[in-house]
Design brief:
Layout lengths: L2 H5 L3 E6 L3 H12 L4 E4 L11 E5 L2 E4 L10 H6 L9 E3 L2 E5 L5 E5 L2 H11 L1 H21 L15 H15 L2 H13 L2 H6 L5 H8 L15 H9 L2 E2 L2 E2 L3 E3 L4 H13 L3 E3 L4 E7 L2 E7 L4 E9 L3 H7 L8 H9 L6 E8 L18 E3 L4 H12 L8 E5 L14 E8 L12 H16 L5 H4 E7 L1 H8 L35 E3 L13 H13 L7
Parallel strand pairs: 1-2, 1-14, 2-11, 6-16, 14-20
Antiparallel strand pairs: 3-4, 5-10, 6-7, 8-9, 12-13, 13-14, 15-18, 15-19, 17-18
Length: 538
């Protein structure tokens, strides 16, 4: 051990990675009285939930860009509004059509019915049934988000109790509800939507949530659940609502960091962890890339499961079968991101001037078939020639994001491969990808290109190298049935513990999965406090 390491005091717990889940876990541990240190390789906290000024006075939500999934229980218990977090709800959303039409979705129930009726009176009626059935699925799964997934092979009292709890909830759905739930979790989004709607534009607008962040197409089995995953959030008790964090998504991370420091925890940035130290099957702390070693009896990794065990540990310290399963865990890059500074608000002729739907998510893919063709491009190792985009202009309702009279646009893109068939990513290919996205938007906005002042173009390769997400996968692993609940990330290790004593996972590779939710971090903290005999997370 070097001299600096010898002088380094030992902490109770080290959290590797200051992404939002790592910060959530650290907050709960610090509030329970542990001496907690969070280590972050970048010069700023937040991981994928950051706000950065990369051009003039514009603030970009650099990677993640909207807020809804963050559990209200976590917001309340960690007092995040007290530390500056404010969520501004969307006012609607819209999909523009190639023939010049559009479908707008509004918060107002009657306005929404009238809008869907323009395309199909039958679908306006069906939307009531669709919303009811999706909310029923949300009500089934949401109480499980902040509970440890049970191990179905275990006879421990806690696992048996959790299995019984799950069985009771499932049985409480009734015969038809149980049948519908089993079908839903394994269906494709396209098949699920076909059971309700006839209009292609209605199905296309709703199907977008089923492919965001996943390496699957809308006709792939399991995408109905991905649609539900994006539907599970709420803002001010409005289920399925989405909104902007005032000041960008970094406001979430900054509030968590402030809550942590107020509880006595500490954060070190520019502190990349090179190795998690293990001796005789128990964690000893971490070694930084600088060579410094920091000791702790507990280590929580907010990195994904592959990066944790295959890059930050010696595989010889882990069971061979466990390492094999980690290698097989599916983490596939499929998403790109553009952050664009605009000289003014672009016009969209397909949308009525002043419509509140402009102050929500905007799309230009008007059929499920277009989405599936975009997915076919990804499978062939190229970015989609007609990509699905989730486009927002948060500066319309959050003036902190751009100078007066200017605007910031966030564009999330499906599909963009981590590995290109034609060769590695370079500046020319990155620009060509960005140009494809910009041209796609410009077909619906004649003045858009002339308003562009700056565009940050990010591929899965860029997201991986900046944020540390393997292949740029925003969920730290596919949300497919084989990687959910007690299978996430590895059967037998779905309760945040690992084969190494004193070491835990707290990132989105664990239950209940990705998005800026905070549940994996809270659940991991609960496991630590239970194992150490401390009181803390309920």
């Amino acid at each position: 051990m070097n001299t600096r390491a010898a002088q380094q005091r030992e902490h109770d717990a080290i959290v590797v990675g200051a992404g939002h889940n790592g910060l959530v876990a650290a907050c709960y541990l610090a509030r329970a009285g542990l001496d907690v240190l969070v280590l972050e390789r970048n010069a700023y906290v937040g991981g994928a939930a950051v706000s950065r000024r990369l051009y003039g006075e514009f603030t970009y939500s650099n990677c993640s860009y909207v807020c809804s999934l963050l559990r209200p229980e976590i917001m309340r218990s960690l007092e995040l509004p007290k530390f500056g977090l404010q969520i501004i709800p969307y006012e609607g959303g819209c999909t523009m059509m190639r023939d010049g039409g559009h479908l707008a979705l509004y918060d107002n129930h009657d306005a929404l019915r009238r809008e869907i009726s323009r395309h199909s009176k039958r679908d306006a009626e069906a939307y009531e049934r669709y919303s009811r059935d999706v909310i029923r699925q949300c009500k089934f799964i949401k109480p499980l988000l902040l509970r440890d997934p049970p191990d179905p092979t275990s006879f421990k009292p806690r696992d048996l109790g959790e299995m019984l709890h799950l069985a009771r909830r499932f049985h409480g759905l009734g015969e038809s509800g149980m049948y519908d739930t089993l079908r839903f979790w394994t269906m494709s989004a396209a098949d699920f939507l076909d059971e309700y709607f006839e209009s292609e534009i209605v199905k296309a607008h709703l199907a977008g949530s089923s492919i965001i962040g996943t390496a699957l197409g809308p006709r792939s089995p399991g995408t109905a659940y991905v649609l539900l995953h994006h539907y599970m959030g709420d803002i001010d008790d409005t289920v399925g609502a989405w909104g902007f964090a005032r000041g960008g998504m970094g406001a979430v991370s900054n509030a968590l960091a402030a809550s942590l420091r107020a509880s006595g925890g500490s954060i070190r940035t520019d502190a990349a962890v090179a190795k998690i130290l293990v001796r005789a099957g128990r964690t000893q702390g971490v070694a930084l890339a600088s060579g410094e070693e920091i000791r702790a009896g507990l280590v929580l990794s907010n990195m994904d499961v592959r990066r944790t065990f295959l890059e930050s540990m010696d595989p010889s310290e882990l069971p061979e079968e466990f390492v094999r399963q980690v290698r097989n865990f599916k983490i596939r890059g499929s998403s790109g991101k553009l952050n664009i500074a605009l000289d003014g608000l672009p016009s969209f002729p397909a949308i009525p001037a002043g419509s509140p739907c402009l102050r929500g998510d905007l799309h230009v893919t008007d059929t499920i078939e277009m989405m599936e063709r975009a997915y076919d491009d990804w499978k062939s190792g190229r970015w989609s020639r007609a990509p699905y985009i989730d486009m927002l202009i948060p500066s319309q309702i959050d003036p902190t994001m751009a100078p007066n009279g200017k605007h910031y646009m966030s564009v999330f893109v499906q599909y963009c491969p981590y590995t290109l068939a034609e060769g590695p990513w370079n500046d020319a290919r990155r620009k060509a990808f960005g140009d494809t996205v910009i041209e796609t938007i410009a077909r619906q906005s004649p003045d858009f290109k002339q308003l562009i002042l700056h565009a940050e173009i990010r591929t899965p390769w860029d997201i991986e190298n900046e944020v540390g997400l393997t292949e740029g996968n925003i969920f730290q692993g596919e949300l497919t049935m084989d990687q959910l609940l007690f299978n996430r990330p590895i059967p037998g290790y779905a309760q945040y513990r690992t084969p190494v004593a004193g070491m835990y996972l707290c990132g989105s590779s664990t239950h209940p999965g990705g998005g800026v939710m905070g549940a994996p971090g809270a659940n991991a903290a609960r496991a630590v406090l239970r194992d150490t005999g401390r009181r803390g997370v309920a």
